From TrEMBL, chain B:
The keyword Ribosomal protein applies. This protein is located at the 30S-50S ribosomal subunit interface and may play a role in the structure and function of the aminoacyl-tRNA binding site. PANTHER family: LARGE RIBOSOMAL SUBUNIT PROTEIN BL19M (PTHR15680:SF9), RIBOSOMAL PROTEIN L19 (PTHR15680). This is Large ribosomal subunit protein bL19. It comes from Blastopirellula marina DSM 3645. The gene is rplS. One of its GO terms (cellular component) is cytosolic large ribosomal subunit. It comes from the Bacteria. The lineage of its organism: Bacteria, Pseudomonadati, Planctomycetota, Planctomycetia, Pirellulales. The keyword Ribosomal protein applies.
Length: 228, 116
């Protein structure tokens, strides 16, 4: 598997390096995660390790989420057992709130195993995948950094609007793909090649340089970068 | 919960004991500066006019008059570069931010001394 772990963004602060310089960091509570499933070439067509982070109370988890982590009795399970079909291995842990797969060889992993932030202890830089803060239906000035229009000189209540979009006689139409207003944020964002400042195995924390996508409390995937 | 985690992170970078001083104090701030390969201590003295932030991000502002021109320097309280802060004189002040000193010149910038 790619070296990586699931976590939750705690917030930003600043720390000092050895020479006393201030470093802005984002604190991520990373792990411990459980291995929920192993995807194999024969069965699934690809290899990956499925990790789960953050326990979800059983009363909130639906049946499929509970069945993912522990065997549930059902007519079908009994029928399969009677027919001599081996049940798939279960991790035997609590249901998880955040489940993601990390692609790569499953060697050295087994279902139910606990993965801690220690896997990233010798990693210099990581990619952080999160969901950006939602900004709703945003205008062009916020969404695409358009300049808007003038405050005075006869501009009529269109100060934050885009300008013309279709030109004149030629081409007499709007080109496809033109930047316009619309849903902004609340999308998957990958921040690549983010420097690791510190890995705190005792408290399951990782400190990365600068910002990370999403709100405080948002779930993120932190994995070793593949950038050179 | 998340604030606990933040405190754990910051605890490692905070000074176990910070020098005691208050708003309105005249202080000497001893900072370490690197000249070539040699480290030396530089002293900057003035009046503390503000403290802001919390945790490792706490800063304090020291104001002084240099050549008739007001100069303010902002220091991170927990920075390893700030060696020590020595309070030399305490004053009677009634607010947490003494920004009104910026509008004053000459004798009007004086603060009444508080004898402890």
């Amino acid at each position: 598997m790619t070296k990586g772990i699931l976590g939750r963004k705690v917030g930003m602060t600043q720390v000092f390096d050895e020479s006393g310089n201030i470093i802005p960091v984002t604190v991520i509570e990373a792990g411990p995660c459980h291995v929920l499933q192993l995807k194999s070439q024969e069965r699934d067509g690809y290899e990956a390790v499925q990790l789960g982070f953050d326990d979800k109370p059983r009363r909130l988890a639906n049946r499929s989420e509970r069945g993912q982590v522990a065997p549930l009795s059902s007519k079908r399970a009994k029928k399969l057992a009677a027919a001599g079909v081996e049940a798939s291995a279960k991790p035997d842990c609590e249901p998880k709130r955040f489940v993601r797969e990390l692609r790569g060889s499953t060697e050295g992993f087994e279902i139910g195993q606990e993965v801690s932030v220690g896997v990233l202890s010798d990693v210099k830089a990581v990619d952080i995948v999160g969901t950006s803060k939602g900004r709703g239906y945003a205008g062009v000035m916020k969404r695409h950094n358009f300049a808007g229009q003038r405050a005075t000189h006869g501009v009529k209540k269109v100060h934050r609007h885009t300008g013309g979009t279709g030109c004149s006689a030629y081409p007499s139409r709007t080109f496809k793909g033109l930047n316009m207003s619309g849903q902004y944020g609340n999308a998957k964002v990958t921040q690549r090649n983010v420097k690791v400042v510190k890995v705190d195995e005792e408290n399951n924390l990782i400190l990365v340089y600068g910002a990370a996508p999403g709100p405080n409390g948002g779930f993120v995937v932190v994995k070793a970068t593949n950038m050179v | 919960m998340s604030q606990d985690l933040m405190n754990k992170v910051e605890a490692a970078y905070k000074k176990p004991e910070v020098d005691q001083f208050e708003i309105g104090d005249t202080v000497e701030v001893h900072t370490k500066i690197l000249e070539g390969n040699k480290e030396r201590i530089q002293v900057y003295s003035g009046t503390v006019i503000a403290r802001s932030g919390s945790g490792t991000r706490e800063m304090f502002t020291v104001r002084r008059i240099v050549g008739g021109e007001g100069v303010e320097k902002k220091f991170p309280l927990h920075s390893p570069k700030v060696d020590k802060v020595v309070s030399t004189r305490k004053s009677v002040v009634r607010r947490a931010k003494l920004y009104y000193l910026r509008d004053r010149v000459g004798k009007a910038t004086r603060l009444t001394e508080r004898r402890v």
